[in-house]
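Task 17 of the worksheet. Students: predict the tertiary structure of the chain below and write it out as structure tokens. Keep your answer in the requested format; marks are given for formatting as well as content.
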Amino acid sequence: MATLIVMDHTGDTRHYFDPRNPEALLEAEERFRQLTGNGFTAATRNRAGEPILTRRFDPTAEEMLFYPRLVGG
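Model answer:
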């Protein structure tokens, strides 16, 4: 199972999907587009566990993290 983790002011929400299921994969990719289109930043982890910024949906990633744009003031 792959996971999309969305961070926001309420904590985090996890969306699990089976990357071998074409319908679930399309739904996950659409969620990726919606989140990044709404200003969320997406990241995956490399083999060492370090976050890597991503701008494209990666169907092979086990985990993708989305965090909102930070606004300073």
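Marker's comment: The mean pLDDT is 93. Helices lie at 22-37.
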